[in-house]
Amino acid sequence: MMIVASNQKEELQAIVNILESEGLKVYTQRETHRTIIGMAGSIKPRLADLLSQMKGVENVIANSFAN
């Protein structure tokens, strides 16, 4: 799963905190107007729904999930 998010520090930290609390390893790539967030680990399906509703999240790209 990948996330496209704003570059607002507080919003990014909230997203990263949730991902890390799920036991995921988080990778970020800051661009001029947005940040791309990738992760490694077992991703639960409900996580994409939760993240897509968070402030600062522009897009959630989910491709596969662990059961």
Can you characterise this structure?
Helices cover 31% and strands 31% of the residues. It is globular and about 30 Å long. The protein is built from 2 helices and 4 strands; from the N terminus they run E-H-E-E-H-E. A 4-stranded antiparallel beta sheet has the order 2-3-1-4. The chain has a single domain, classed as Alpha-Beta Plaits (2-Layer Sandwich). With 67 residues, the protein is an alpha+beta fold. The longest helix has 13 residues. It comes from Paenibacillus durus (Paenibacillus azotofixans). This is DAHP synthase ferredoxin-like domain-containing protein.
Topology (elements, then pairings):
Layout (H helix, E strand, L loop, with lengths): L1 E4 L3 H13 L3 E6 L4 E6 L4 H8 L4 E5 L6
